[in-house]
Amino acid sequence: MGGGEDMESDVIVSEFERHLRLERDLSPHTVRAYLSDVRGLLEHVNGELEALSIQALRAWLAEQHGAGKARATLARRTACARTFTAYCHQRGWLAEDPGLLLGSAKAGRSLPVVLEQEQVEAVLDVPLTGEPKELRDVAVLELLYATGVRVSELCSLDVDDVDRDRRVVRVMGKGRKERSVPFGVPALRALDRWCVNGRPLWVRAGSGPALFLGVRGGRIDAGTVRRIVHARLAQVEGAPDMG
Asked: In terms of Cα–Cα distance, which of 108, 38, 115 is closest to 75?
């Protein structure tokens, strides 16, 4: 990268760091890891932000996979890429958000696909019968994956915390700090299905504004969310063929 591009990249990374610390309220360890990932991603596209296409993102992740990076590292870098492109799109630095396709694209895979990505897609890509529990579980999984919020934060969400037009969710984090977290079209569709066809069937007098409900109509708890995630992952891991 040339000198001007270096300076521009430094400004972008600095602004992204401020976003992670003040708006996303991520831990110092996660912020450091994300910044390292973003620097690597920008180096992959030679500092040219406009070159961050879905093809470039997949090529970068495939390169990491080929280098033998651990699954946890690959999963974090996928999440980081999606967070970074969403932020750049919000700031007007990218005309479109290519990271949206990382969570839903299934066709045209000419490059190696990161195993973690395949697992996530298998977890989320299930036929829907329309049962309220199924609609809720898929919406929970989609929103967790799209936003990276903590389980406790997801449980505390109210219906009005979801801004459908801007595709962001307002999250109350540690220290009562509120931040807005973007999510993609797959999560929006799952939320719409749950809110229109699932949640109304479970609402009770004491449900209040809770976005996600338990089968008895109360606000969903962290244990239930963890069981949803673990049950779906167990189904995928036990499958004889991932694709």
From this structure: 115
